[in-house]
Amino acid sequence: MISIPRSLIHQFRAVTRRAGLCKPGTRQSGSVRILASTDTVQLQTTNGTVSAELKASGQFGPAEVTVPAEFLADCEAKNPDLVTIRRNGNDRILVTWTDRGIPQQRDYEVTEDLEMPALAPQLAANSPKLLAALRDAMSTTESNSTRYALDCLQLDGSSGSIAATDSRQLLVQSGFQFPWSEKLLIPSTKLYGCRELPTDLAVEIGRTDQGVTVKIGCWTIHHTIVADRQFPEIARAIPVVSAIRTRLSIPEADAKFLAETADRLPADDQSERPVTLELNGSVVVRARKDNQSPLMELLLNRSERRGDQMRLQTNRGYLLRALEMGFREIGFAGPDAACLCQDETRSYVWMLLENKGALETDPEAIRLESSAIRTRAEVANDQQTIQSVTTGSTINPPINRVKRLLHKKDAKSGAGGSRCNPDPAVVVPIDTFQQVIDLRDQLQILLRSVSSLAKQIRQERKQSLLVQSTLRSLQQLRLLDA
């Protein structure tokens, strides 16, 4: 008999689901082995190429049992209530637990025992950065590749690097310690993106003849080595630094601005979702749905172009991913060449789209400037507005502020018409797009305020009804006494 917490089962199922383990139709995928000693318990599963093991400490009775995968879905929960697993004869397993005070019971057929890979005899310790590197690399693979092993990662022991590509983007990360000298291929998995994995612990890695072992705290992951497939030659795909003609520097504020707005721009191709990067004097991101639709532009006031002027077209997904990974400078060798993001340990490369589709500027374009994003002072003021409304203070309705914003003009100075420095606590809408965003934000604030007031009114109404009911009861009692 084994008793384990439901929260442990929940944690194990969350990781194995994301990794595609315990998936019907795959080899050795329908079972979970539970192995307990007096002070530890291990949950294990495998699909033949990736295996996962979760180990926890506690007081357990020595036992071993293999249960069907549906056991995880039946018994998981975030609470620490115990699940008891015992054999019921030779070919059945009885599982019992309590759900909100109600006894639960499931009966499963005994399944074939799992064959788990052996632990690597030598493990090299790395910083927690290795977990993030594996997660980012796994997101750079292609699952439907046939010619090359694009659904695999290349772990180079001689250089301590991880390489991944889907033929359109390439990510190489170095600075790690691997206890082998050759290049190994392991299959891709989404497992390393699970939030259940600890991100502040050292990551150990090693290999056997058949696989690679990764150990992170109480988790152990095994990958089968792919020995019969070829990884593409990646060295020639990374542009040399001397070939870079133009560099784009995007500061933190503009990076956040792009992350919030670029995905909302229209696109004429939903697969590539192209945007035009205008690096001529100003830095502009440009997009349009079709020739009949208005041109939309994002002006990055704080960003800087160094080198040759250039107009190019790129998949916005790769641009946003580079910013998400923390890169703040992009190098361009030309409008039809690969572009490069690079720091001390990482190189991220992606192919640009055909430049013939790049959009030219239009005087009728709808433009949004990055310097017009809402400031912290405004956010704090909005929060104060909500608080004042919910506490019943007398204030100007938020919609009045929207009207003032929509009618406020850009400050001008001198005959040249150059802009004055605006008050940093006030956002001046400079175009229709920004006005719509401001209006939306203010209406959301107003909606939350109205919802809060409605809640207060409902509570007061309930109290009033209660008082009326009490008074009627008292009146009836007086009549009875009379």
- Unreliable segments of 5+ consecutive residues: 393-431
Reported CATH architecture of the largest domain? Roll
Lateral strand order in the biggest sheet: 13-10-11-12-25-24-23-17-21
User: How much of the residues is beta strand, in percent?
Assistant: 25-35%
Count up the domains. 4
N- to C-terminal distance: 71 Å
CATH superfamily grouping of the largest domain: DNA Polymerase III, subunit A, domain 2
How many E strands? 28
Gross morphology: flat
| Helical coverage, percent range | 25-40%
Largest β-sheet summary: 9 strands, antiparallel
From the alpha-carbon coordinates, what is the Rg to the nearest angstrom?
30 Å
Written account of the structure:
The N and C termini lie far apart (71 Å). This protein folds into four domains: 108 residues, DNA Polymerase III, subunit A, domain 2 (DNA Polymerase III, Chain A, domain 2, Roll); 112 residues, DNA Polymerase III, Chain A, domain 2; 131 residues, DNA Polymerase III, Chain A, domain 2 (Roll), CATH 3.10.150.10; 90 residues, no CATH class. By secondary structure, the chain is an alpha+beta fold. The protein has a nine-stranded antiparallel β-sheet, covered by helices on one side. Strands 5-2-3-4-16-15-14-9 form an eight-stranded antiparallel β-sheet. Strands 22-18-19-20-26 form a five-stranded mixed β-sheet. Helices cover 26% and strands 30% of the residues. It is built from eight helices and 28 strands. About 8% of the residues have low confidence.
